[in-house]
Design goal:
CATH topology of the largest domain: Thrombin, subunit H
CATH class of the largest domain: Mainly Beta
Mean pLDDT: 74
Number of domains: 2
Strand content: 25-35%
Structural class: mainly beta
Helix content: 10-25%
CATH architecture of the largest domain: Beta Barrel
Number of strands: 27
């Protein structure tokens, strides 16, 4: 069954992929799992490097090419990157995102042998059919990223992982079969399930992937992961074997970010690397059975995980139906434009825990954003939105996420002099979330 016929199937199943998300940890939606960052820093509310602990207890990491892994406790699968100075923060969107590093102009690099693909070949034309290479600009983070996606319809609907486009201010998609490049916009996302749906502009006559409609593969089945390995712009195919069809992995990020548990994942052994995020997991018939999402590091054998295609397509159906219930976001989120320091980060900073005022302390303010226009600066502490007291960055994120771009909110904050300030701001349309 071709993708363009599949995604409207009323029988699309749900429930295979569930997320155990700690209520106050909605910012973990910003984590990065398999993508590819090549530029200034794996930074921001994107938490480009994520740590995944597999059901068997081995270290597993999200595959974001370019994850600079500035913090030592998270392994990197990324290419060398530059432009980040140290320190964790929560990112730019509702004011609080995931984890990352403070943006800066200092160059630096990191790399990992785990991101060097040893056992893969250039994808054949049949393996490349319907697969796209995704490049993003993370404008607020002075970074770039890359990943993979799958064409679902001839007019340009593309499925990928949410973390591939999370934080993007520009998205460019190249059809691997034709070499033609398109600008893409976000139709909708489910950040906790790591699914995103894009629309290519002015696209027509595209060849789609073929989706398997016979359920999950079986243990010992042969599979092939096709992706934009290391963000190199060339599709690579890594052959492997299914080792489990109902695996669970738990993701976590630096310091304070609570983990998410993804269940019902296809576990397989194949040499997947950074940049393979959002790519197709093909069965022996060349049909898509899953979307590659995470993989282990630190051992000779790579254990990888894919979202079953039925689960991903059920979320696509919800997005196309315009149903923004649950964790689905349609289009782009509301955007305030501040980075909020975590409690853990503030405790590590000189002088201890920073401000003694309860609320969400601003680590920095992005230029040209609603927060900047309101006069907020680093060191200020947001204490209320529309009269609701703010006690944490998580709460700030949640309240902003309940709004749409164009909504007006009243902010109350304590400035660095200890003086209470109030202003009404109009939330902007943020980067992809």
């Amino acid at each position: 069954m071709t993708a363009q016929n599949m995604h409207h199937d009323d029988g699309a199943q749900t429930g295979y992929l569930t997320i155990a998300l700690v209520p106050e940890a909605r910012h973990s939606r910003r984590r990065k799992v398999i993508g590819s960052a090549v530029g200034a820093a794996a930074v921001s509310a994107l938490a480009i490097t994520g740590l995944v602990v597999g059901a068997n207890g081995e270290s597993t990491t999200a595959l974001s090419s370019g994850s600079s892994a500035q913090t030592a406790n998270l392994p990197s699968l990324g290419d060398s990157s530059s432009g980040a100075s140290g320190g964790t923060y929560a990112g730019p969107r509702g004011g609080y995102g995931g984890t990352g590093t403070w943006p800066g102009s200092d160059s630096g690099s990191s790399s990992s042998t785990a991101s060097v693909q040893q056992d893969a070949t250039t994808a054949s034309s049949s393996e490349s059919t319907g697969i796209v290479l995704i490049d993003t600009v993370l404008g607020y983070d002075q970074a770039q990223a890359a990943g993979t996606g799958m064409i679902l319809t001839s007019d340009g609907l593309v499925l990928t992982n949410n973390h591939v486009i999370d934080g993007a201010t520009e998205i460019t998609v190249t059809d691997a079969s034709t070499g033609k490049t398109y600008t893409a916009t976000v139709v909708g996302t489910d950040a906790t399930s790591d699914v995103a749906l894009l629309q290519l502009q002015d696209a027509s006559g595209l060849t789609t992937v073929t989706l398997d409609n016979e359920g999950d593969p079986a243990v010992a089945d042969d599979v092939t992961a096709v992706g934009n390995a290391s963000g190199g712009g060339v599709l690579m195919a890594a052959d492997g074997t299914v080792t489990s069809v109902n695996s669970s992995v738990t993701t976590s990020s630096e310091y304070w970010v609570s983990g998410e548990t993804l269940t019902g994942m296809i576990e397989f052994q194949a040499d997947v690397v950074s940049g393979d995020s959002g790519g197709a997991l093909l069965d022996s018939q060349g049909e898509v059975v899953g979307m590659t999402t995470a993989a282990s590091t630190g051992s000779a054998t790579v254990t990888a995980y894919a979202i079953p295609i039925e689960d991903a397509m059920s979320i696509v159906d919800q997005i196309l139906a315009g149903d923004a219930s649950g964790d689905v976001t349609l289009g782009y989120p509301a955007f305030l434009g501040v980075g909020i320091a975590s409690d853990a980060t503030m405790a590590l900073m000189p002088g201890g825990s920073g401000s003694s005022t309860a609320g969400a302390q601003i680590a920095y303010v992005y230029d040209g954003t609603p927060a900047a226009s309101a006069g907020l600066v680093a060191g200020d502490v947001i204490t209320a939105i529309d009269g609701t007291a703010i006690t944490s960055g998580d709460q700030l994120s949640t309240l902003i996420a309940e709004h749409s771009p164009g909504d007006s909110v009243t902010l109350t904050w304590t400035d660095t002099s200890g003086v209470a300030q109030t202003a009404t701001v109009t939330l902007a349309s943020g980067p992809a979330a």
